[in-house]
Amino acid sequence: MIKGLVISTVWVLDQDRAKEFYTEKLGLEVRTDMTLGEGGMRWLTVGAKDQPDVVLTLMVPGGPGMDEESAEAVRKLVAKGVLGAGVLATDDVHGDYERLRARGVEFLQPPQERPYGTEAILRDDSGNWFSFTQPREGDLDLEKEWAR
Fold this sequence. Notes:
Elements: E1 7-11, H1 15-25, E2 29-36, E3 41-47, E4 55-59, H2 68-80, E5 84-89, H3 93-102, E6 106-114, E7 117-123, E8 129-135, H4 142-147
Parallel strand pairs: 1-4, 5-8
Antiparallel strand pairs: 2-3, 3-4, 6-7, 7-8
């Protein structure tokens, strides 16, 4: 039986740069950073301190299961900024928006009221965008909010 999502892949253009962005700018923590197997694939994961069971794998397109033509297509889409990587939840979108901007995080949209809460849109150092959302007060269950 499926118990939930524990790992999600975010395609990045440079793992060292992404590691710096996700930890130093967004404030996530490194969970794993190691090289696997003979091919030298780097397994780099980060996560929120208060959510130990969920990680983002910061992966460079390519490697096992992805031919070079597909890897190049993914790299182009990431760099173009058309891939949304997910939703990052916060309990202080306005304050965190200002703190993250001061750290150099690019926002495509400042905080705006939505039916499910207040949302800003940020972009990582590779081009991926994230919804940065503070759900309506009293409910941090985004899935429940969006189902309404």
